[in-house]
Write a structure and sequence with these properties.
CATH superfamily of the domain at 158-269: Substrate Binding Domain Of DNAk, Chain A, domain 1
Number of helices: 9
Low-confidence stretches: 1-13, 280-326
Pfam families: HSP70 (PF00012)
CATH class of the domain at 158-269: Mainly Beta
GO cellular component, one term: endoplasmic reticulum chaperone complex
Biased composition (Polar residues): 311-328
Transmembrane segments: 21-39
Region (Disordered): 294-330
Structural class: alpha+beta
CATH architecture of the domain at 158-269: Sandwich
Order of helices and strands: HHHHHHEHEEEEHEEEEEH
Number of strands: 10
Shape: flat
Distance between the termini: 18 Å
């Protein structure tokens, strides 16, 4: 028994020695890792530069000298677009951060020739409150007690250009359709033409467009059906040349579009209309016949109308009796104008970046996309395998540690 006890103690002490060795190795690794972290952090701190400094207001205003002149550009643009002069302005209200920059306020005072600027509203809440009220004014679900007098204008001016066979020079050139900052729910433009044509819409001033816009042309439409309509009604008696009418609309977001187009055809025709006369006669006195032309669609035989005829006071009531008879004298021809509105087909044409890919380009794009999809699938598969391997390593290590602990306890 004594020898068996010694053997067991020797085994436990041997296992404990292995455990202590592994513990020392782990502690050494942790110490090296912490030392490496400390060294890296000290290297980073040695490379940092403290940029804290102080600056006076005079120096700040001197460094921002070019910005003060640029801050006056929006005011000058507003005056030029509105056509107002400085002496016609009643008040200048400051909102936002402008109320906290003294140099900016001094520049505005010098430019406007005023001693003080107006500050009657909350500078921070004014924009938010105005935007909320304007949104409620535009919304159909929110009812305000009264309508606010705010109107959105177009941010850009728009021009139109027509291209087609037989167009006049003044119609084929670019013309202003909508001036800038003008309200235009809808607008109609007519031109005398009998052939199909194309409509192109442009921004009025390309210099005002944001960076990245390569062309001031933004929409193009093909209007068809006008040639067929002119051929159909060419044999009729046209009272005026055929006109094409274009209907444009400007949304609340400032987006211009061609909603519809139609051809206006005016025809003059001789139409036979029944001619009816109303004869008024006196039973006793010889009076001339009074003829009244009956209006179209009215009934001439609805009843008799009493007419006061001057006569002798001693005549009887029968002598003042009036008879009204409708006499049909045949038909007569009248020249009438009839107007026909023929809807035209409007098709939006893609150009520039909106042009569709050709068949060859589309096939190449599909091949590239398929190759990218395969690479993505391989990457996901590799990541999944790595995660599975890592999970297996952690699970195996945990099982080994559990077996060692159980063996040590035994």
């Amino acid at each position: 028994l004594y020898s068996m006890g010694l053997i067991r103690i020797f085994r436990i002490s041997r296992d404990m020695s292995y455990f202590m060795i592994w513990a020392q190795v782990v502690l050494m690794l942790l110490w090296f890792i912490s030392l490496l972290i400390i060294l890296r952090s000290t290297e980073r701190q040695s490379q940092l530069i403290n940029s804290r400094s102080t600056i006076t207001r005079e120096k700040f205003e001197e460094l921002c000298g070019d910005l003060w002149e640029q801050s006056l550009i929006p005011v000058k643009k507003v005056l030029s677009h509105s056509g107002l002069k400085l002496d016609e302005i009643y008040a200048i209200e400051l909102i936002g951060g402008a109320t906290r920059v003294p140099k900016l306020q001094a520049k505005l005072q010098d430019f406007l020739g005023r001693k003080e600027l107006d500050k009657h509203i909350d500078a921070d809440e004014a924009i938010v409150l105005g935007a909320a009220l304007h949104a409620a004014n535009l919304s159909d679900g929110i009812k305000l007690n009264r309508k606010l007098g705010m109107i959105d204008g177009s941010s850009y001016g728009f021009s139109i250009e027509l291209d087609g066979v037989g167009l006049a020079n003044n119609e084929s050139t670019k013309q202003l359709l909508i001036p800038r900052l003008k309200k235009l729910p809808s607008k109609m433009r007519s031109l005398k033409h009998d052939k199909d044509f194309e409509v192109s819409l442009y921004y009025e001033n390309g210099d005002m467009l944001p960076p990245g816009i390569s062309s001031d042309k933004f929409l193009q439409f093909a209007v068809s059906g006008l040639t067929d309509a002119s051929e159909k009604y060419s044999s009729r008696n046209l009272s005026s040349p055929i006109k094409a009418t274009l209907h444009f609309s400007l949304s609340r977001s400032g987006i211009l579009s061609l909603t519809k187009a139609d051809a206006v055809v005016e025809i003059s025709e001789w139409v036979e209309v029944p001619k009816k006369n109303l004869t008024v006669g006196n039973s006793t006195d010889v009076t001339p016949n009074v003829t009244v032309e009956a209006a179209r669609g009215s009934s001439s035989e609805a009843g008799a109308e009493n007419l006061n005829v001057d006569g002798d006071t001693s005549s009887t009531s029968n002598s003042n009796e009036v008879e009204q008879n409708a006499v049909d004298t045949g038909t007569e021809k009248k020249l009438k104008k009839r107007t026909f509105r023929v809807p035209l087909k409007v098709v939006e044409k893609a150009f520039g970046l909106g042009v569709s890919l050709s068949g060859e380009s589309l096939s190449e794009a599909k091949l590239r996309l398929n190759a990218l999809d395969k690479k993505d699938a391989e990457r996901r598969r590799t990541a999944e395998l790595k995660n599975n391997l890592e999970s297996y390593i952690y699970a195996t290590r945990e099982k080994v540690c559990q077996k060692k602990q159980a063996y040590i306890v035994k």
